[in-house]
Every structure is written in structure tokens, then in C-alpha cells.
Amino acid sequence: MNGALAGQTALVTGASQGIGAATAKALAAAGAHVILTARNDRKLEEIEQAIHEAGGTATIAPLDLAESDGIARLATAIANRWDRLDIMVICGAILPQLTPVTQIDQSAFSKALTVNLLATQALIGAFDPLMKRSDNARIIGLTSSVGRAPRAYWGAYGATKAAFETLLACHAQEVEKISNTRVAIVDPGATRTAMRAKAYPGEDPQTVKPAEAVAERIVALVQEPFPTGHRERVA
């Protein structure tokens, strides 16, 4: 497929719905071959079909981010098929129940830490060799405002995102002088997603921007010469 990202390979986590799905479609529309990962096979197949019907190309790779061994296996499988990875967009995350810090469920908190933080390190580590082979590798991590501005009842999720941002920012500094990989942290702002609907059940979804608006900005960002460690919020 022709496009600004033709010939490039992208990996998108959380690609079965919301911002992840919209980003996968937008990257494919720009010419990239997109590897779609998420837990839900059926939804991934629907996104893959939509991409193909629009003239793009994609490959599904069902994956539970809570399983670190699965990330390693995925990296091996991708390395056996592609010689490099140009773009990685980390959208996959889970939202624990909003509750006072004193009442945080340890099991749910542990799972959120695993998916939102530990899996991020596993992804960066597993795909680093493939990204180093790219002339212009970019890692885009999706965060939340509560990672930098603590909010009552958001302690569990906010803590995972604060650590997520620190991890990505450290990696950005570590690769700045030794590779072509650039890292950006993007706060999508208020966006029409299932996660937001869960957090704000009384909100009219039509009052916030669609996931496609964030996806459009991500696709534009990966084509820009942003400095590694770049941060931005999508208005």
C-alpha cells in the first residue's frame, strides 16, 4: 500500500478496541503493515478485516500482556518474519476499580501493575533488537493525566501510569546516543473509549473526542522528527 509509512512495520498493543484499534487502522491507512495484539481474538479479526477492506495490511497476534512469556514468544515470531520493527504503540492497559487508597484491591492492583507497567518493560526489552535495526524507530506510549496529577480515588491506576511514564522517559534517555529509537509519551486527554465510559458512566460520550482524533495525531507524530522523551497531550 502506498503512503507515508509504506514499507514500515508497526506493532500496536490494545489493538482490539478504542484508541489502539483506531491507531492500528490509521497506521495501516498510512501504508504501514500493522501487527495487532490484544486478548480478544474475535475483535482483532474484525479490526484486521476492516484494515484489509480499506486496502491496508495487518497481521493479528493474540496476546495477554499479563503473560511475560507471551511477549517473548511474540518478539521471536515477529523476528522470524520481519527484519525490523519501526513503530511500537503501547495502548494496552487496564483500569482497576476507582477506590480510596485504603481500599485498593491488591489482586486487581497487581494485575494493573503487570499489564500497565511490567509488560511495558517486557515489550521494550523484547523488541529492542528489532527496533535497533530500524533507521527511524519510534515508541509511543499512551498515558493518562492522573499519572502526573494525582486525583482522589485514582491512586491504583495513577500509580501505574506514573511508573509507566518514568520507565519510558528513562528508556528515552538511555537510547538517545546509541540508537535511532525515539520515545514519546502521549496523553490522549478525554476520549470516547470503553475505559472512559467505565470511569465516567454518567458522561455523554458525544461530549468528548473520538478515538480517531488521537489516532490521527499519533500517525502524524511518528512522521515528525520529535526529540526523544517528547511529551504531549492531545487536545
SSE blueprint:
Blueprint: E1 9-13, H1 18-29, E2 33-37, H2 41-53, E3 57-60, H3 68-81, E4 87-90, H4 106-132, E5 138-142, H5 155-175, E6 182-187, E7 191-192, H6 194-199, E8 209-210, H7 211-221, E9 230-233
Parallel strand pairs: 1-2, 1-4, 2-3, 4-5, 5-6, 6-9, 7-8
Helix pairs in contact: 1-2, 1-7, 3-4, 4-5
Task: Please give a handful of descriptors for the protein shown.
seven-stranded parallel sheet; single chain; 235 residues; Rossmann fold; two-stranded parallel sheet
Could you name the CATH class?
Alpha Beta
- End-to-end CA span: 30 Å
Give, in order, the helices and strands: EHEHEHEHEHEEHEHE
Shape: globular
What is the CATH superfamily label? NAD(P)-binding Rossmann-like Domain
Strand content: 15-25%
User: What's the main sheet like?
Assistant: 7 strands, parallel
Percent of residues in helical segments?
Answer: 40-55%
Strand tally: 9
What is the number of independent domains? 1
Q: Helix count? A: 7
Summarize the structure.
The protein is of the alpha/beta class. It is built from seven helices and nine strands.
